[in-house]
Amino acid sequence: MSSAHVQRGRLAWVLGISALTLLIGGLLTVWLTVRHFQQDLPSVAAIRAIELGEPMRVFTADGLLMAEYGTERRSSVRFDEIPRRVIEAFIAAEDERFMRHHGVDPVGLLRASVRLLQTGERTQGGSTITMQLARNVFLSSERTYTRKIREILLAIQIEDELSKEEILELYLNKIFLGERAYGVAAAAQTYFSRPLSALTLDQAALIAGLPKAPSRDNPIASPSRSMERRNYVLRRMHDAGFIDRNTLAAAQSAPLGVSPYRTRVEVEAPYAAEMARQTVVAALGESAYSQGLRVYTSIVGTEQTAAVNAVRNGLLDVEQRQGWRGVERRLKPETLGDRDALLLALGELPKWPALTTAVITGTADGAVVALSADAETLRLDAAALEWAGAQRDTLQPGAVIHLRQNAADELRLSQTPQPQAAFIALDPQTGAITSMVGGYDFYLSSFNRAVQAQRQVGSAFKPFLYAASFDVGFTPASVVLDAPVVFDDARLEEAWRPTNYSGKFYGPTRLRDALVHSRNLVTVRLLQSIGFEQARSFAQRFGLDRDRLPRDLTMALGSASYTPLELASAYAVLANGGLSVEPRLIDRVEGADGTVVWRPDAPVENPSERLSPSMPAAQPTAAPADPAADDTMAPVVDDPRRVVPEAITWLITDILRDAARRGTAARVGTALKRRDLAGKTGTTNDETDAWFAGYNRHRVGVAWVGHDQPQRIGRGEVGGRAALPIWVDVMRVALKDIPDEPPPPPDSVMSVRVDRETGGRAGVGSSDSIFEFVPVASMGRPAAGEERPHQPTPSQQRQGPALDDLF
What we know:
Mean pLDDT: 85
Structural class: alpha+beta
Radius of gyration: 38 Å
Shape: elongated
Distance between the termini: 148 Å
CATH topology of the domain at 82-253: Penicillin binding protein transpeptidase fold
Number of strands: 24
């Protein structure tokens, strides 16, 4: 053997050993590197329990969407709910060999490496779908070699843990696709306003083209880039054999067809939804926005819609009665010849639901021509603009006007309302809030007047004062003088001369008629008779804050301020027979899997706390004939929730049913033709606040109209005119399928014959008597002629002058 041959053999051996050493060293280096990075890798097993961050959604009691809250739009879907064309589009665009590799695609990595060596750029990372999932779930988006190594290792582990179908399901639900959309289902809604299952091939390809640059290439931000990317994905689908040439050509020629997402609210209830959102976040924390919570409220969809429409129509009707104020705004003359400029200017104006905003552009054939904010050309004849009257000549080109559809669907001149309104209704048996409107429009003003605005309640407070008088021995038959009176009270700045709204005086008046017709003078005298503390303490039993009730005679006419919700809660005690009730809006909160995660406590734990310690029980005027009847007027006997005797609430309700038939609320009976409805109007000085509170055993509703900064609503805009029609329009819907069943008198109430003039029990042979309901406990009083049945007790005489002294 030659020395050259031996030398070559030795060289080969050295090279082999060197190569083996390098290989072993390389493998050892790789192994050590892997071990190093594996030490702090997250557990891939946790990927099965990953939360995808769905927004919180708020629903009505009947399951209709009210609102959606959250920074991410997401709607998770199962793998079998994802159309095949969507899966193929993503595989073609992002990872053509997805079904053949084990988390890492060597070909893709090699291509990325070559690109890096050629250009020094790291734009093509060779990331597979599994690697992208690893990055989206566990890692940041920083571009470093360290992150890439961790991404590769995690991808391999994910492939060991999950099937290909599970990987695709997670990836297609997790990936960010622009415009706050996470996941393909959310993207389908965001860009095309349709469910995932309804996507066409070209739409699926458009969405599959977004992961590379979702914020830049989406069809809302850049339609041209989006179309280029879509067509690229379609070509990749063709190259991969997913579609044929004809299908490719048809899909590439399709327009983008983008229809930007708006939350598909099924019931307009933003005030209630916002209140629910605040409650849930306060209870469950900020994470509530991303846990896919489903918040179910007590709002009834049809009733809520009726309430929204009633408030808007009620305010527009107030404006109609008060007359046209004139043109509110004019556009610049230079815009009149430019349709696009006009539409742009109109688009920048506030949006008023129930009104059409338009700008006058000229005249034609005796009609005024206008362009609406919806780009519709309108022709308005003389009838449409008749309301302008003498100001008709101000309707010149450039004038911005507002139009409203009448009952015949004809557009008529209108104007934006200056007052505001609120409505709230609840179930008096449970306290569940069934409808809530906090103003004309939430997006014009988010201030929730239904629960936040404390306003003077006017005569709507009177039922609680009359109830307080019944608690100390007065009855609906008791007579009080309606006559002029002047009060000099140190608590008032000057002598006070209350009057009736009509300006008339009616002489001796039974309390039933006084409340039915809302007689101010009788009510003031009644308060002076029973005393301020009795009135304040008894009002507290209805849940009204006694500290807001003034210690002067203006209390009788409703000078205290409460919110519509507080007033509705108080009237609920009348409606349910004297039981405490706490209003509630949220029924339950469900997690993404449908399990109940939170349910607020509605019942009152200790309703007796509403009772004043100084007034623990009723004080009848005289001892009843039957000692067993002593408890009929006691505040707490049959139910731990009882705060007011049933006899008192039934009597007040019976009187207010009269008011709804023949009194200040007579429009209720005329419009709804029901016998079970009771209600009371309320109007404050100078028609600043207008109220109506009405109810039956199934529903309590309160409507309020007024300005945010107190000022006169308008001449004649009293509770029965401004607020009551709102209530009627809501109850026409809310009570549609509820039987008309007036509540029968309880055992603690009976009907007796009383003298019409004195209010006492009618004597034998009385020629002027009527039947009246009174508490059984009052039957022990002396007959008429021996002593007046309404004579105050000694304790009341110390609080104020005896009633006889006021006649």
